[in-house]
Amino acid sequence: MKLDILAIGVHPDDVELGCAGTLIKEIQNGKKAGIIDLTQGELGTRGTIETRYAEAAAAAKILGVSARKNLKMRDGFFKNDEEHQLLLVKAIRKYQPDIILGNVLIDRHPDHGRAGNLISDACFLSGLAKIETKDDEGNTQKSGAHGTFCNICRIGTMSLNCL
Ligand SMILES: [Zn+2]
């Protein structure tokens, strides 16, 4: 599924808190948008994984996004390494977005900054044709070579404080 905008947040409520207004406005303008949550937010002081999934699904419906996926990285302990970068490259290539919104690169919460850098790195790597990835059906995915979706994710639109 091709998306115009892909918003990626490390915790299931980051996108809602960081850029819900932007998503609503762009969807109302006819754009197709989606959300990727990197973790299930399992270390959050309030709520449970189940309540976070229910809230994420309800928010996705209210926002009008076309897709929402959770990559189930480990909250608090995911890394910006090859394994996690390739997982995100695969997700980015699945949606082939023109614009990616992601966590800021520097933040008081270590997950936010680490995720921002992971998103930025995966966005760049998704444009490299020599990095081959397969979709869920085993088909080779199209890279974002020739500038299709590399160099577009350095937008630090989400500055959040998750306590
Ligand atoms: Zn957060």
Automatic annotation (TrEMBL):
InterPro entries: Bacillithiol_biosynth_BshB1, GlcNAc_PI_deacetylase-related, LmbE-like_dom_sf
Domain of life: Bacteria
Protein name: Bacillithiol biosynthesis deacetylase BshB1
Species name: Niabella ginsengisoli
